[in-house]
Amino acid sequence: EDYQERCVQCSEVNWGLTDGGRFYCRTCHNVTERTREVVSSAVTSNTRIQTLSKGIRKQEKTDEGWEWYVCEGFQFVLKKQAEALEALGVCPQMKDEILCNFWRSYLQKSQQAYCNRPAGESIKVLSECESSTDMESEPERPSLLHLLSLSESDGDLLTDCSLGSSTGKVSESTSVCSGSVDGSLYFMKNQKGKLRMSMPMTLSFCYMALLWLRESMTLSDLLRFVVEGHIPYLNVFQCFPEKMKLYGLDLKIFCVESWPVYEEVYDKMLHLAAFLELPRFPDITDSCFLHPDILCMKYLMEANLPDELHNWTCRVVKKIRIGEADFLTFVPENKSTRKVKYDVLAAAVIVVVLKLLFLLDDHYEWLLSDSAEERNKNNKEDGPYFEFKKWYKVIKKSLDAEQKKMDEENAKYLWRCDKPLSYSTKKKSKALKRRQIVVNLQNQFGKLSGSLQPAEKPNPSSFQLHWSEENTDGSCFHGHSLKGILQEKCGILTVMNPDYWLCTVKLCSEKFCGHLAHYRDLDFPASYDFVLRLFSFLLRIQPGYIHEEVCAIEHKLFNKKLYKKPKYNPGQRK
Amino acid sequence: SHKHKLDFRKSKEMCLNYIQDAMLQKQWNRAAEFMTFYIESLEKDFSTEYTGPSEIVWRIGTEILWHCSRSNMKEFNSFIEQMKTLGVKKYLKICLEHAFHLLCNGRTDEAYQNLFLAESWRFGEQTTTQDKEMKLIQAYRGLLDYYNWSKQKNILLEYDKVGFEDLSVEQEMHNSFRKAAVSLKEIIQIPGVWDLFVQCYVDLLEFYGDHEEARQVLSEYAYNSKFPANPNAHVYLYQFLKRHGEPKKSLISVLKILHDIVPSHELMIDFHAMLQKSKKRKKRRLGLEVIFAALDYAGWKENVKAWSCLARQIKQIIISEKHLEWIKQEWNSRKDWWPAFHFSRYLAKRNWQENESLAYEKALVAGILLGKDCKYFKYISHQGCKDQKKKFRTLKKFVNKHSPVYLRISE
Fold it and tell me: In what residue span(s) does the Rrn7/TAF1B N-terminal cyclin domain sit (chain A) (predicted)?
């Protein structure tokens, strides 16, 4: 980016980097002799001056460490995350090929060029280290510059700065406020057009790779695994090699203090895909896990709803054509179409179906349930008819219990890691002392309450709620029939109620307020709110997101009615 | 924006809520459990003004430990020591409260040790910022010196009885006295409420015969306007003067101020008695005011002595036929509410049932102030005469005889 010279051949300013680290003109493919080192020498000379004037040489002689760059850190994180995903059953291709390529492309496009790596070595070294096998074979993973600065004394590193190269000086000046070489630069430079890497974005990378491979993991699944600890995220920097010293500004980059938010990760993924100029992703067909038909089936099971509802979800999907590959497949370049959140979409479809069948106006569903109960009394041959009331009671009980458990777990969450962190070397001893006190106190109070053992990590599971038909208490509704609430008309089973209420008559504009619709629980019936909260809990997202999707679906479903007359009328349901 | 996302701060807030809930329900083990998870917020303690994690952990942790393992002082002490190292700004406060806890647990010697150690703490400019706490520490250490002195004094007295002498104990006693006196004297010079310290100091002074200093101290404590208004200060002064046989005049002047601050104070009876004995008209007038004022308070409603004082004075005034206007003046502001407050039919029944003497005195007052036809007097005198009690017949006669008085005072 810094290189602004015009190409001698075509006078364009459109540079790329060869594998050898030289600049080449993208327009005419003219390769120059200039390397990145030369370009960023301006940077080095400044820092050299800074170093001398500050006279900073505070690093203790005993404090050995490698020089490392922030992107290396992220690379490490991604590697760990990919390994964890592989352990969860994702195919190895994700780690070895897809994620690797995405990352490499990102590095190239964002020209992580704050280092002055001698020509020829940089990118090659990078690509070597990316491949997992290399990393695995070397227990002591060398930093980029270690390879370059191999001195006589093996393993004896940089602090004394006896290296002739200017790299040493760069590290010195920045190492005061961060362990990494470019930690401080990371915050200083306002990178417009560049996508700055962040911890949440590592998950965006992962999700993007999963999506490319059409793996059986939605974004909400991924984020849930992160929170449950199956995918490294919080404190993953603890696994950095010993020699990669982390302090100061590095902590701001790598030390996370909040759980990743669905929307944030998702939006970053969209930006990332566009930034990397990725082509259309592999098609999402009806045999993919992410297809609404399949996801609906999963969520219906998890929500303990009758399997028969699946017919209805498929019908809705078909009617509004959200099962088509062109709708579902991710096309990064296409900025105008609204991007699909597969999990939210599937949940919303189910909510719409429930509204169609039960109305959910705090009145009709109970009436219907009572009538189903009546019919159930005389029902001898068929399986039991589905009663909304019974289902509600069972689910509410479970949901309340699970929510309470989750709230307590959140309150009991331990954020800090064993490795004491400090923002500067000066405060390190204070931090260590404090850590010691914290550990002592934890032991003391732990003994009092008898809870010294940390809670065990639950086994990773794609289902959070489990219902088994073997339970004799009748708490599983999968096999229940919808006949109790449907009526026969012309040989087809249809819904009994002719009415429907729209969540919103008019959709907002996403451009202005970021959402299509806004949710306030007081404005809606309690049953509707309950159903939203059920899926909100399962997907670990705010009810508003699902509500928004419900609104979008309804507007597609009742499109004709809406745009003919502004008021809603009871529609004829097929 | 992502207001709902779970982050460190929110997670710890929730944790704190759980701790507080558990504490309110006295589920100490559960509180301890959540505290285990709250503790790591100490590593994020950058607070300066508001109640930060270290203060929360200190205070809540103290409560939890106190209730969870009351007998285990070792645990408790080790916890407190850790709290002391957490932050320099609260060091002395923690020392002081630690000493309180030890005292509450009867461990006076340990408390003394702690205070003594804390006294010698110095930490740059923190020493001046925490000046108040330091003074308190010195004061309490002085108080414990007094306590030691007192113990030693009692030992010596015991020895004295059996004619035994022990110079070492005596020496110790004088040492304790010196240490206590210095600290106590210093703290009571600072405007504030130092009741206990003042009393101890005066006790010391009196023992060693320095009455002048004692009087000076007590006067300062009571009359120095920089000190907050404190009724006890006047009580202490009064008691001291009485002990030393001061003339009635000084006693009365002290109690007058007490009457002004706390008209319902229990010493008002003594005060009234003193005023009644006086030859001066003004004093007797004041006496009536004092006794009426005391009976304005609910706590005095069933005080037989007070009623009998009032009854006696009223009787005296009536019989002497002088100063009826005194009664009129006092009754004027009370005639609207005293009837319901003291002389209702319900109270008549109750007083008669529970306390005849009370009923008797009150009946006299009611009969005079409200006339012989008032419900209280009628009921009591009827009951009393029914029971053939002589004094009630006398009472009835007396009130009937002086019924015109009622008309005069109620006009």
Answer: 74-241
